[in-house]
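Review the following:
>
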Amino acid sequence: MMSYHSSCVEEELDRLSREEVPPQLPEVDNYYFCPLYLEDMDKVRHAIYMFVDLFGLSRFDKECLIRFTLTVKKNYRRVPYHNWTHGFSVANSMYTIIKHAPKTFRPLENDAALYRDSN
């Protein structure tokens, strides 16, 4: 019963699974990017884009990535601070740092640069 209530909504999963991951999203790697005006589903789309941009889809199933992201969104509580927008902001900040300093982190910390350089 708990897994049912904590899992993503299938209709959202179906809708997002039919969408293509955009080749780029303007300003998402800008440290001053502000997600406060994005709808929750747009934050999901941005999170999926950031993951695919860093790691690609060769090692991860797109549907599993979407399901995971939607489930994370669903399980954040609607409180003033520690909510889905805050979680997205933290992920976006890390994405921005990794994008602008790809050789700063060792492979175990971030294998995106290593993976990207090998392709």
The two ends are 43 Å apart (CA to CA). Helices lie at 2-6, 10-18, 40-55, 62-75, 84-100, 112-118.
